[in-house]
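Please go through this chain and its backbone structure tokens and walk me through the local backbone shapes. Keep your notes short.
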Amino acid sequence: MNGYKTTVGIEVHAELKTKSKMFCGCTNDPHAADANANVCPVCMAHPGTLPVVNKEAVHLLMQIGTAVGGTLAEYSEFDRKNYFYPDIPKAYQISQYEFPFVSGGELAGVALTRIHLEEDTARSQHDDTAGKSYVDYNRAGVPLMELVTEPVIHDAESAGKFARELQLLLRTMNASDANMERGEMRVEANISVSKTEELGTKVEVKNLNSFKSVEGAIDYEVKRQIEMIEKGEAVIQETLGWDENKGKTFSQRVKESADDYRYFPDPDIPKFKRSEIPEFSESSLAEISAETPENKRVFYRDIGLTSDQIEIIITDNVRDSFVKETLKTLSDKKEIATMANYFTSDVLGICEAQERTLEGAHPREFADLIALVVAGDLNSRVAKDLLQEAVFEGLSPKDMAEKRGLIQKNSEDDLIPIVD
């Protein structure tokens, strides 16, 4: 834009899908109906309590790191990030600074800097009418992944594409539900503009909770910063919020530096050595992490599905499992193509119209129906009439068609008596 180069780096926080919190045995349910129901002396920072690392959370992070081609740390440790705020019971957050679990990697063509583990904060709720604020500590201590990209994104659309692909990866690996509207995945964008190869002064827009907000905030900030520079004004390094209704950013505070947080290794948590944990070996993690969205795209592309069909299938793990079960008894290219068409239009059409899910559906009967269509035993109209009973009730399409006299007569021996 007008000779300016936009540079964006993305930070993403995602709550991991574990049974318990990061450093205690409390249930990992930040959305519990009752406030402060999932708390204990550890996550409430009572004196004398000690944290115990959630092994499942570390394992999930290692799987994610493997899936993006990152370098897994042989040695790692947790640090204390010191700052005071009502949603931090200890007045520090347990995070990672110098030795993250994962370094490097790439996703959607974007180079990654690091992925590390920390604990989430509590949720503050403000009652402006009463002039009071309330804190729900159900979320305090929930395992939180932080992923940081290199500053290699140059437009809002690419940033949105990256965030969408990360959400899909987390859901595919069942590592996080990553619902942005529920705060389970939160995006922060570091944005700067410059007319030279040297980076401009960056601002950070925090807690973007939709892909539309990510793209809107970047576009707005690029325009705002360019206008300031053209007027001879200096861009201030600061932390900004995003007002979705007004479509503009607003200042929250001057950006802190790492020194402000006074990081130091947490003395209560043992150091991590990956070689001492067999299930954290690269071979074990590679096997678990093979089912990535990109690998699924390659699989479906190789058997002839279109790009649109592939994206419809892989965005939902239940859909993907159903289709793969169906494919176990289909091998002919025409059968596969017909299956994909029926699935993405008719099966999902029934799901949407009747608010059904594919949980408990019957892929074998669906495959049998497709085979009858391709063989010419059923025409398309009849097949679609039988589809619901076959897929959602598990009735044999061949038995239904025979009992109802719906099998097509295609052979010469069948047709001669009719002609005569």
